[in-house]
Structures are given as C-alpha cells and as structure tokens.
Design goal:
The protein is α+β, with helices and mostly antiparallel strands. It has helices at 20-26, 39-49, 54-59, and strands at 12-18, 30-35, 61-64, 67-69, 80-84. Strands 2-1-5-3-4 form a 5-stranded mixed beta sheet. It is globular.
Length: 90
C-alpha cells in the first residue's frame, strides 16, 4: 500500500482509543491509523503498528459510538474505535 492520501483501497484515517491492557500493549492511549473501512481492517492496522497488540486484539471487545461491534462492521467517518481487552472485577 503506497498511497499516502488514504485513497488506495479505501484507506482513510481512523482514531483508535486503547484501554487497560490494550493501552499497555500499544504504548499509547490514542492514535490515528490509516485503515480500510471495516473494524477488522482497523485492528489489522493497529497490530501492524504495534505487534504486541496481536494477542490482545484476538480477545478484545471493540466499541464504536459506545456500542460493541463485530470485526465485519463498517466504520463511518469521524468515528472513534475503542479497543477494550477483557478485564476482571467490576
């Protein structure tokens, strides 16, 4: 993928927000990645940027607009994707 303007294969900037163990694995609280439109595409871009996220992403929940979504859901523009690993307690 060589396009830098986000036009190649539907790539566009997406804001990711990491929580708990996902934050620790990524080393950041929030970032913007270039990714395709599906949640799965976005998670793949996150793992490419932070390989330590691979195991966390495999078991995490993903929220868009505060709602849990599957990997095949299309994410609209100006949305924040939140990555929440499982955690104990409550």
């Amino acid at each position: 993928m060589t396009a830098t303007d986000g036009s190649h294969r539907g790539m566009r900037p997406v804001t990711l927000r990491y929580w708990a163990g996902a934050r620790a694995a990524a080393g950041v609280t929030e970032e913007t990645v270039e990714a395709g439109p599906l949640v799965g595409d976005i998670l793949e871009a996150a793992v490419a940027a932070h390989p330590g996220l691979r195991d966390v992403v495999a078991v995490c929940s993903v929220l868009v607009d505060g709602r849990s979504v599957g990997r095949d859901v299309r994410v609209g523009d100006d949305k924040v994707v939140e990555v929440l690993p499982p955690f104990a307690g409550g």
